[in-house]
Design brief:
Largest sheet: 9 strands, mixed
Number of domains: 3
Number of strands: 30
Oligomer: single chain
CATH class of the largest domain: Alpha Beta
Strand content: 15-25%
Bound molecules: adenosine-5'-triphosphate, manganese (II) ion
Shape: globular
Structural class: alpha/beta
Number of helices: 14
Radius of gyration: 23 Å
Helix content: 25-40%
Low-confidence stretches: 1-9, 15-19
Distance between the termini: 54 Å
Length: 532
């Protein structure tokens, strides 16, 4: 095994004292022949990423990484080792494929053999802001920028916490290794695989950094229900008087955008746990969508993305490093990843109390759901299990028909257990807390995608303000005839016709047809949960 840091080879880059300690690789099963770097922080990681030609820098010193073929999650290539005794508990579905234990071992050995030949970066990090429910992660990757991504994304231990760090989970990350699918019994040359028995995550064949973050989310979703904690795909923030709000929703519905609010401290933008003590973040950073990001509309995310050490994924810049957020030529899923302390207003402890408001975000591209509705606990459970949003299909020319997506608990790709497990926890904590529930449509109004328009961010923010300061309760309400949802007639800062979806459509009969069609999709999807 070589010296950990090869200080001679990279003079001035690597801090002294990271040493040659073999325990830095304990639990990984690795014995690399090349140097490996342990727990480097931002400056040396950025320096090495530049020297190794992994990335470019923006004019502000943000890391600009490209991920090649995969610019989003490889949803079909996700596996869970079908280890003895867990098969019954795992929710097997097309986004959660069983891998026989021997196949998982073979995959892990293949990845280890490859990593042993590479220069490696090791980062020891936490997931879970609440020490009672945290896991210690040891990530080993072949790129300095992926190591920096993980440092930005997860919770960074203190020096003292690093001294006797023993990992609960190891994540072996080989983004540039293309697997032999046939020999390994896999669907493709890419795999995101985990074994809950071996406490090991293996990622190969994709450079998209979001896989690192989301695989650890799956691990938390596996572990926490056993500890009586409700793991959630939601953002969370807290007001000056300590009121906590949760924002559930599928990708692109506004979790990150709407929780970044100068007036409310951000707890986290994507993954949380709800315990008897309250809410806690799993992460220590944000992963914001930045396509078409505007400085005026999203100042917090803008500022955080124009800083040394932020990681911009598949964002395009000119030769001088000037960022163009409107350029979607690599992907529409451009991302910015930064630690929470890049924001002006955040909770350093990543924790808050019991939520007062639970907001379910949906981006309804059919344009039929009301911009805001008040939900009974029963309706909240229905929408939680349904997990509805509607996307606009791809970038193909002329395609304007939105696609309905139903994803149980607003996160089925990340749920290793059956939806019932999470629904029961949701029901329990909702009842105990008496939190108010809301459905907020951040998608289309005045017609479907193509005819109508997207809800303005300013109106959605005004709606949230009225929910969070309680003023919305003073409104009069009416029940919509299709979904039976209670809608307010007035919200400060929002024109009344925007609040009533049918009134915003030019053709009321077309609205009724579209609403009934969507209702039928809801019912069809919900059948799987009936009698369960
Ligand atoms: P992910 O789970 O992938 O992180 P997310 O729920 O965090 O997704 P955001 O990153 O907040 O989603 O993306 C919402 C996108 O929609 C942003 O690009 C935002 O600018 C845009 N948007 C447009 N109108 C609205 C609106 N009314 N409310 C919220 N977001 C809006
Ligand atoms: Mn987000």
């Amino acid at each position: 095994m070589s010296a950990v840091t090869t200080i001679e080879a990279q003079p001035g880059i690597v801090p002294e004292g990271t040493g040659t300690d073999r325990t830095a690789l304990a639990g990984t099963g690795l014995s690399p022949v090349q140097p490996f770097y342990v727990n480097l922080r931002t400056a040396p990681l950025v320096t090495l990423a530049v020297r190794r030609d992994e990335i470019r820098l923006s004019e502000d010193g943000a890391v600009m990484a490209r991920t090649g073929e995969y610019t989003g999650r490889s949803a079909q290539d996700k596996y869970v080792a079908n280890d003895p005794d867990i098969g019954e508990e795992v929710w097997w579905h097309p986004g959660n494929n069983p891998l026989p234990p021997e196949a998982f071992d073979r995959l892990a050995e293949t990845v280890r053999a490859y990593l042993d030949q590479q220069v490696l970066f090791v980062e020891d990090l936490f997931a879970g802001a609440d020490p009672a429910h945290r896991i210690r992660i040891r990530l080993v990757t072949t790129n300095a920028w992926h190591a920096l991504f993980a440092r930005n994304m997860f919770i960074r231990p203190t020096e003292a916490e690093l001294t006797d760090f023993t990992p609960d989970y190891v994540l072996l990350h080989a983004p540039e290794l293309h697997l032999d699918a046939k020999a390994l019994g896999l669907r493709s040359s890419t795999a995101v695989a985990m074994s809950f028995t071996h406490r090991l995550v293996v990622i190969a064949g994709t450079e998209y950094a979001g896989e690192i973050k989301k695989s650890i989310f799956s691990v938390m979703n596996w572990r926490l229900p056993v500890e009586g904690v409700f793991p959630m795909h939601c953002s969370a923030n807290i007001g000056v008087d300590g009121d906590v709000a949760l924002f559930f929703g599928l990708s692109g519905t506004g979790k990150t955008t709407l929780s970044s609010d100068p007036e409310r401290a951000l707890i986290g933008d994507d993954e949380h746990g709800w315990s008897p003590k309250g809410v806690f973040n799993f992460e220590g950073g944000c992963y914001a969508k930045v396509i078409n990001l505007k400085k005026e509309a999203e100042r917090e995310i803008w500022d955080a993305s124009h800083r040394f050490g932020a990681v911009l994924e598949n964002v395009v810049a000119d030769a001088q490093g000037h960022i163009d957020f409107n350029d979607g030529s690599l992907t529409e899923n451009t991302r910015s990843c930064y630690p929470l302390d890049f924001l002006g207003n955040f909770r350093p402890d990543g924790q808050g109390g019991t939520p007062r408001n639970v907001i379910m975000l949906t981006a309804d591209a059919f344009g039929v759901l009301p911009p805001v509705a008040r939900l009974t606990p029963k309706e909240a459970m229905y929408h939680f299990l349904s997990g509805y949003t509607a996307r606009v299909a791809g970038t193909e020319k002329g395609v304007s028909e939105p696609q309905a997506t139903f994803s149980a608990c607003f996160g089925s790709p990340f749920l290793p257990r059956k939806p019932k497990v999470y629904a029961e926890l949701f029901g329990k904590y909702l009842t105990e807390s008496g939190a108010k529930c809301w459905l907020v449509n951040t998608g289309w109004i005045a017609g479907p995608y193509g005819t109508g328009r997207r809800m303005s961010l300013a109106h959605t923010r005004a709606i949230l303000r009225a929910i969070l300061n309680g003023e919305i309760n003073a409104s009069e309400w009416k029940v919509d005839p299709h979904f039976g949802l209670e809608m307010p007639l007035s919200v400060a800062g929002v024109p009344p016709e925007v609040l009533d979806p049918k009134a915003s459509w030019a053709d009321p009969a077309a609205y009724d047809r579209q609403a009934e069609a969507l209702l039928a999709r809801f019912a069809e999807n919900y059948r799987q949960f009936e009698g369960a």
